[in-house]
Amino acid sequence: MAGPLDVLPVRSGEREETTGSVPHIQLTAEPVPEVDAELRRRAYLLPGVIDQESRLSLPGARSLWLSDDVEIDRPDVLQSGREFGHIHPDGSMHVWLPVERASEVDESKWGELHPWVTQEGFWDGVVMVYTPESPEELEISLRLIVDAYNFVTGSDLDAAAVC
Question: Which of 14, 53, 136, 163 is the most buried (most CB within 10 A)?
Answer without folding.
Answer: 163
